[in-house]
Design a protein that fits this description.
single chain; alpha/beta; Isopropylmalate Dehydrogenase; 2 domains; 10-stranded mixed β-sheet; 12 strands; 42% helix; globular; binds 3-isopropylmalic acid; binds manganese (II) ion
């Protein structure tokens, strides 16, 4: 089959990890006779440098015309360290999420048995950990009105949610809970925030349509603690934008490294696939970045394109890379492999696997 993929390498380590994702797709093409046509476009600091705009219109157009979007990472310390900057790389990503209607960001937290030793948690606490977070992605504090008073010494960010916004992402979370362990946890701050009370009310109402799903409600501060003390209790988590951003970085290290977690952003148009880590500028160009989160995001993309065997091949190849101790320096200090070598290994592994 033929697929059109828009590729947004972005900033920092983005281009390097994306290159490994594309390399791995090359093996899938050879093995299954598919063809992926890539359209490389600008977003983030690279787009600001060359066009003044973090998200040029032609990037949006390409994404909307594609079957799926692959994103590396965006962000540059030049802007992080300048709070007065008017144009920022992150504006590109937020506008893209909005333009593509990507209201749900799906972040699976899976542990690899081969990497158990690397987790900051004790072995006993890791047993049975396997959950997925549905993070609302186009609302809340990220998109509310923001500004300053005239003197500039008071700032505000408005947090707003509509019932409709809550329902559409929660529905996806319920549907996933139905095919998993039938447990859904809404993470909110309903003891303080009005938006959280609307989330709770809406999810309670919606839960009537899913009588088989056991729904729990958890305040975000408690959830942050529970992810450390008893992460195995979670199956599907649904939460608003900022809480989801924070708890998924936290959850990612259960597996041993932030460099392992993939994500899929979906809505009613095209879907986008990206690692949850950022642009890690200190590592850019050094061939030390971990490409696994990107490669696993490619696997999520193949599942989305209904190429299930192909996605499984990638996951098996990644496990094989851990078995063979082909790991980047965030995972091992003992003779770590470079970004390119890891991509080469995973790609070769797919080619060598016998077609199932
Ligand atoms: C993420 C990132 C982004 C976010 C940044 C880069 C705007 O941290 O995808 O989790 O906060 O959503
Ligand atoms: Mn984040």
């Amino acid at each position: 089959m033929n697929f059109n993929i828009t590729v947004l390498p972005g900033d920092g380590i983005g281009p390097e990890v994306i290159e490994q994702g594309v390399k791995v797709l090359g093996s899938i093409e050879n093995k299954y006779g598919h063809k992926f046509n890539y359209d490389y476009k600008l977003m983030g600091a690279v787009a600001i440098e060359s066009t003044g705009n973090p998200l040029p219109d032609e990037t949006i157009e390409s994404c909307l015309a594609s079957d799926a979007v692959m994103l590396g990472a965006i962000g540059d310390p030049k802007y992080d360290n300048d709070p007065t900057a008017k144009v920022r790389p992150e504006q590109g990503l937020l506008k893209l999420r909005k333009s593509l209607g990507l209201f749900a960001n799906i972040r699976p937290v899976t542990l690899y048995p081969e990497l158990e030793e690397l987790s900051p948690l004790k072995k006993e606490r890791l047993e049975g950990v396997d959950f997925v977070v549905y993070r609302e992605l186009t609302g809340g504090l990220y998109f509310g009105d923001k500004g300053r008073n005239e003197a500039g010494d008071v700032a505000f960010d408005n947090c707003e949610y509509s019932v409709e916004e809550i329902i559409r992402v929660s529905k996806l979370a319920f549907e996933t809970a139905m095919v998993r362990e039938k447990k859904l946890t809404l993470v909110d701050k309903a003891n303080v925030l009005e938006t959280s009370r609307l989330w709770r009310e809406t999810v309670q109402e919606l839960s009537k349509n899913y009588p088989k799903v056991n729904v729990e409600y958890m305040f975000v501060d408690n959830a942050a603690m529970q992810i450390i003390v008893n992460p195995a209790q979670f199956d599907v988590v649904v939460t608003e934008n900022l809480f989801g951003d924070i708890i998924t970085d936290e959850a990612s290290v259960l597996s041993g490294s932030l460099g392992l977690l993939p994500s899929a952003s979906v809505g009613n148009k095209v879907a986008m696939f990206e690692p949850i880590h950022g642009s890690y500028p200190q590592a850019a160009g050094k061939d030390i970045a971990n490409p696994i989160a990107t490669i696993m995001s490619v696997a999520m993309m193949l599942d989305h394109l209904k190429l299930y065997d192909e996605a499984k091949d990638i996951r098996d190849a990644v496990s094989a890379s851990f078995d063979a101790k082909i790991m980047s320096s965030d995972l091992t200090k003992d003779n770590p492999s470079g970004t390119i070598a890891i991509g080469d290994f995973v790609a070769a592994q797919i080619t060598e696997q016998v077609v199932a």
